[in-house]
Amino acid sequence: MSNLIKAFINIVNNPIIKLGEHYSGRNRINNVGKALEVYIQDAFAGTINELDEMKRLEKLSKIFSYEGNQNNPPDLILKNSDAIEVKKLQSKNSAIALNSSYPKAKLYADSPMITKACKECEVWEEKDIIYTIGYTSDNHLNSLWMVYGDCFCADKETYERIKNTISNGVTSITDVEFTETKELGKVKRVDPLGITDLRIRGMWHIENPNKTFDYIYEYNDNLDFQLITLMSKKKYNTLPSEDREIIENLDNSSVEVREIKIKNPNNPVQLRDGVILVFKI
Fold first, then answer.
1. pLDDT per position as a tens digit, 149-160
2. Helix or strand run (H / E) with residue 224
3. Which of 103, 145, 194, 212 is 20 to 30 Å from 26 by CA-CA measure?
4. C-alpha dihedral over 169, 170, 174, 180, to 10 degrees?
5. Which regions of 138-280 does DSSP assign to beta strands (E)?
6. CA nearest 277: which of 206, 246, 16, 267?
7. pTM strictly above 0.90
8. What is d(CA 30, CA 139) in angstroms, rounded to the nearest whole number?
9. How far is residue 280's CA from residue 225's CA, in Å, rounded to a whole number?
10. Per-residue pLDDT tens for 123-163?
């Protein structure tokens, strides 16, 4: 079974900075965003250098139980383990567009925003979620954050309170015909002819980790690539001891493993124990 430490080690051993060049020849992928998604797959599956596509696919099927799409989070689910959401940015400090899906500390099987295939990929009710956020310019991967949602996002009640208040307010408008929707609202037959509908959608954004976590990590513009992985100490201690021993004893001066304090997303004056893994070249 794979995990975030294994993915970190695989990237340290195989840092693919020129994503476009690497994947355009091997997988005929010309889109950097798609190349980033494939690189994340390969990092968790240990298939970064696998040239035989069938062997690669067989390995992916053993590691992942679900692969999604850009309209329905998450992008990936590790078998009997964490969910993964991949985001690509073209500015080191730009906000992350989550579209109609609010930020998630955890992923829940009863969420209306996930697909039936995701709900049924395995038996599950709740999963930790990893946000992997790549900052690219042209075909170059400048940095990659891999941060657990519970370090980054508040509990779902925070976002659902806002969403439900807006949705209830919209549907309380009189003399308007509404229809059931997963969005904030949908109005049917707005005009006298009854030919115009109105969709009311939420467009969620969350701040870039470079800003959110600038008190524990300072982005360096002079580096070719930097990988930052962040999780609670509680989560870190649940990962296999053999993987923790490997990363803590890795003979690589470009790798740093450090215990830190991070703000509680639900109450920032409270500090939680965390672990940050950094790789810089």
1. 999 999 999 999
2. none
3. 145
4. -120
5. 140-148, 177-178, 185-188, 198-200, 204-206, 226-232, 255-264, 267-280
6. 246
7. yes
8. 9
9. 6
10. 999 999 999 999 998 889 999 999 999 999 999 999 999 88
How crowded is the C-beta side of 3, counted as CA atoms within 13 Å? 18
In the structure encoding, which two tokens stand for residue 46, read together?
């240990």
Tokens matching residue 177: 């015909």
Q: Could you count the other beta carbons within 10 Å of the beta carbon of residue 207?
A: 14
Long-range contacts of 91-94 (CB under 8 A, 24+ apart): 91/135, 92/135, 92/142, 92/143, 92/208, 92/210, 92/219, 92/221, 93/208, 93/210, 93/211, 94/208
Radius of gyration (C-alpha) of the chain in whole angstroms: 20
Return d(Cα 105, Cα 97) in angstroms, integer. 16
d(CA 73, CA 84): 9
**Cα angle 225-230-234, degrees, rounded to a multiple of 5:** 155
Do 256 and 205 meet the contact criterion of CB atoms below 8 Å apart?
A: no
DSSP character at residue 17: -
Phi, psi of 188 (to 5 degrees): -100, 145
